[in-house]
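User: Just a sanity check before I run the rest of the batch. Below are the structure tokens for the first item. I only need the designed sequence back.
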């Protein structure tokens, strides 16, 4: 099994996640990931500075306000915001980060690597959840073809 796929599988097996950048807008990745993970029964802590609830799940304004430390953080924000958030993730001693495709920056990835935070970047999380629906299942099939050993 290739290293990236192994990292992805380990990330998806974590017990709890904060999702930073959730949105009430149905076509935004933060909303799609939240809905998909709710459906699959993951323990989630959506983070949104102003929303009380999104998709029926209580939101929190930031990592510091969570009732417990999540095992992983999923970032669905702009790269400039990701660069700031990895500092907060480091301060919270969280060791697993997924930078949703489009959220990553080289600077943020490098920070994670240097500081022993396992990071997945440049990948769409929806592709790796079971039966994510079209077009994510097609994207996953193409990804598998290009990442075979």
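Assistant: Here's the designed sequence for the first item:
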């Amino acid at each position: 099994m290739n290293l990236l796929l192994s990292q992805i599988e380990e990330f998806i097996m974590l017990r709890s996640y904060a999702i930073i950048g959730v949105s009430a807008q149905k076509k935004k990745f933060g909303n799609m990931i939240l809905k998909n993970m709710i459906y699959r029964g993951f323990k989630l802590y959506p983070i949104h500075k102003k929303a009380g609830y999104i998709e029926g799940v209580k939101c929190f304004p930031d990592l510091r306000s969570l009732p417990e430390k999540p095992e992983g953080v999923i970032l669905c924000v702009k790269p400039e915001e990701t660069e700031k958030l990895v500092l907060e993730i480091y301060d919270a001693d969280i060791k697993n980060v997924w930078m949703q495709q489009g959220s990553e920056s080289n600077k943020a990835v490098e920070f994670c690597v240097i500081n022993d935070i396992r990071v997945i970047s440049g990948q769409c999380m929806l592709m790796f959840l079971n039966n994510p629906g079209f077009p994510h299942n097609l994207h996953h099939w193409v990804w598998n073809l290009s990442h075979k050993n």
